Amino acid sequence: MARFLVSRLAGVVLILLLVCLFTFGVFFVLSPDPAVQICGKNCTPELIERIRDNLGLDEPLLTQFLTFVSGLFAGRTYGVGESATHCAAPCLGYSFQSSQPVWEMITDRLPVSVTVAVGAAVLWLLVGVVGGLVGALKRGTWWDRSAMVVALAGISIPNYVFALLLQYVLVVELEWLPFPQAVPFSEDPTRWFQNYLMPWIVLAFAYASVYARLTRANVIDTLEENYVRTARAKGLPGRLVIRRHALRPALTPVVTIFGMDFAGLLGGALITETVFGLNGVGKMTADSIARNDQPVIMGVTLLAAAFVVVGNVVVDLVYTALDPRVRVRSA
Amino acid sequence: MTTIPTEALAREEGAPSATDGAPPPGRVWRALLTDRGAALSAAYILLIVLMALFAPLIVKVSGWGPYEFDQTAIDPDLAGTPIGGWGGAGGEHWFGVEPGNGRDIFARIVYGARASMLIAISATVLTTLLGVVFGLLAGFFGGRVDWVISRVMDFLMAFPALIFMIAILSALPAGNRATLLVVVISLFGWPYLARVVRGQTMTLAQREFVEAARASGASRTAIVFREILPNLRSTIIVLTTLAVPGYIGTEAGLSFLGVGVVPPTPSWGQMIASSVNWYSVVPTYFAIPGVFLFLLVLSFTVLGDRLRAVLDREGAR
C-alpha cells in the first residue's frame, strides 16, 4: 500500500510538472509578445523594454520556465531595486488587465464556484442514482422509459441552451424566480437560494443524466450475476438481495466517475457561471479569454489540472477501499 | 459543459465486446432501419448533411444570404427588435431575423450546419485514425511501446479538456480557426477510443486464430490488418458514432465562448452566444439554433446507442 501511494504521488508530481511545461509553452512560445499586451495603448519602446526586463522575458526559455515553477512553490520577485514587487507563493503572476495577483483573483472567486459545484453535485448524485435505480428495478415500465427519455435529453441538450431556456421559462414567462442577482447568504437566504437554484439545475442536468444511464446499466448487469442468482436461490427476499448483494458492486463505478467529474467541474462552471452572471472562477476565466488576459487563463488551467490529477488519486484510494478485488490497480 | 458527455459516454458504456468477426452489415442495416428511433435519427442527420452540402442553393430559394442585412425587418425605434411576432418569422424570413442587424436566421442556420458538420466530421476522422493506430500499436506490441502510449493517454485524459482547449485556442493567433478546432478536439479526443482498442487488441492477440496466423508465417503487419483490425470493426463504429455528438457539442461550446468559429462565419454555438442578450425579448433567436443543435446531438446519441444494441445482439448470435 505504501509503495502504491508513493508511486502514485510521484506520478502526480510528474504530471503536474508536465502541465506546467505545457501551459508555459502554450503561453510564452505560441502567443504574441506578452510585453506588448501588458503595455496596452499608450506604449513606448522604453516601456516595453522595462516590462520585458521586469518579467525576465529576455532570459532563455528554460530559465524562464524554472523561475515560473519555483515561483509556484517559493514565490518570486519581479524587477529589482525600488520598483521590485514580491509575489508570494504560490505565485501565478499578475493579471495583464487589472494587475492583481492571479492567485488572489482565483481565491476571491472560489467560494462562489464551490457553492455552485457542491450544490450541483448533491443534486446530480441524488437524481442520477435514484433515477437509474428506479429505471433498473422497474425495468421496461413507464417509470423506466420516462426516466431514460429525460436522461437522453439531458445528455443531448447543450447546457447553455438549457440555461437560456430555463431562465426564459422560469423568470420571464412564469415569473417563478426573480432575475438572478448576487446576494450573500447572510443577507437574504431565500434570495441566495433562488439565485443559485438555476445554476445548480443546469450544471446537474447533464451529469445526472449520465449517472442515471450508468447506474441503470450497472444495476441491470449486476442483477444478472451468478452470486445474485445464488442469493435469490437460497431464498433471500428480493429487497435484501438488492441491498446486500447488488448495490455495492453496481455503485462502485459511480463513485469513481463522481470523483473525476467533480474535480473536472471547472469546465462546466465556466459556461454556467457566464450565462447566469455569477462572479466565480468560471466567469473570470471566460472574461479573461475575451480580453486575452493570459496569466489568468494560465493560472486557472494549472489549478484545474491540479484538481483533476489530485481527484484521480483520491478516486483510486476510495476505489481500493470500496472494492476489495482491486487492492492495487495497475495503470 | 458539452465536453462532459463525450468523456462520460466514453467511460460510461464502453463498446461491444470483442467477438469473433463482426455481424454481416446487411443484417445490421435492416435491424437499424426497422428501429424507429434509429431511422428518425439517421433521417435527421442526413437532412443536416444535405443542408450543409447544398447551403448556397437552399439560400437562393429562401431568398436571403447569411451575410445580408435586412434593415426593413427590424424596428430601429425598439433597438433593432424584429418586426412581427416569433422573431419576425414569415414568408420573407422563414425563421425570422437576428435582432439588431436583421440577418436571416434560416440562412445562418443552413450555413452554420456547414461549420458544425465539417468540424465534427473532420475531428471524427482524425480521432478515429489516431485512436485506432495508437490503440493497435499499444495493444499489439505491448512492452515499451505500450508504456509510452499509455502514459501519453493518461496525461491527455487527466485534463479538463475544455479549459485546455480554450487555453490553447485563445493563445494561438486567430488564423484558420476551423483547422485549429479540429486539431485541438482530436488531440484530446483520441485516447478514449485508443484505450478501448488497446484493451481489445490485447485480448484478440491471444486468440487461437492469431496464433494460427503467426504459426503459418504471416507478417506482423498482416496479422494486425487482416486478423485483428476486422474484429475491431463493431467497436470502432459504435465508439465513433457516440463520439460525434461530443465533437459537435464541443465545437458549438467553444464557438459559444468565443474561441471557436470566428464571426461573421455562422456557427450554431456562436448564434446562441449572440442571442444571450436578447433571450427575454426574442426567445426564438436562441431557441432555433438551440433546437437544431439539440436534435443533432440527440440523433447521433440515439443512433450510436441503437447501433451498439444491434451489434451486441447480432454479435451474440
Automatic annotation (TrEMBL), chain A:
UniProt-annotated location(s): Cell membrane
Top-level taxon in the UniProt lineage: Bacteria
Transmembrane helix in keyword set: yes
Name of protein: Peptide/nickel transport system permease protein
GO molecular function per UniProt: dipeptide transmembrane transporter activity
Family the entry assigns: Belongs to the binding-protein-dependent transport system permease family.
GO cellular component: plasma membrane
Keywords of the record: Cell membrane, Membrane, Transmembrane, Transmembrane helix, Transport
Residues that span the membrane, as ranges: 12-30, 112-137, 149-172, 192-212, 250-276, 296-319
Membrane topology value: Multi-pass membrane protein
Annotated ABC transmembrane type-1 domain residues: 110-319
Main location: membrane
Alphabetized SUPFAM superfamilies for the sequence: MetI-like (SSF161098)
Pfam families linked: BPD_transp_1, BPD_transp_1_N
TrEMBL record, chain B:
ABC transmembrane type-1 domain ranges (all copies): 113-304
A Gene Ontology biological process term: transmembrane transport
GO cellular component, one term: plasma membrane
Entry keyword set: Cell membrane, Membrane, Transmembrane, Transmembrane helix, Transport
Membrane topology summary: Multi-pass membrane protein
Annotated spans, Disordered: 1-23
Membrane-spanning ranges: 37-59, 117-140, 152-172, 178-197, 236-262, 282-303
CDD domains: TM_PBP2
UniProt cross-references to Gene3D superfamilies, sorted A to Z: MetI-like (1.10.3720.10)
Main subcellular location of this protein, as a coarse class: membrane
Record's protein name: Peptide/nickel transport system permease protein
PANTHER family: D,D-DIPEPTIDE TRANSPORT SYSTEM PERMEASE PROTEIN DDPC-RELATED, OLIGOPEPTIDE TRANSPORT SYSTEM PERMEASE PROTEIN APPC
Subcellular location: Cell membrane
Family: Belongs to the binding-protein-dependent transport system permease family.
Pfam families: BPD_transp_1 (PF00528), OppC_N (PF12911)
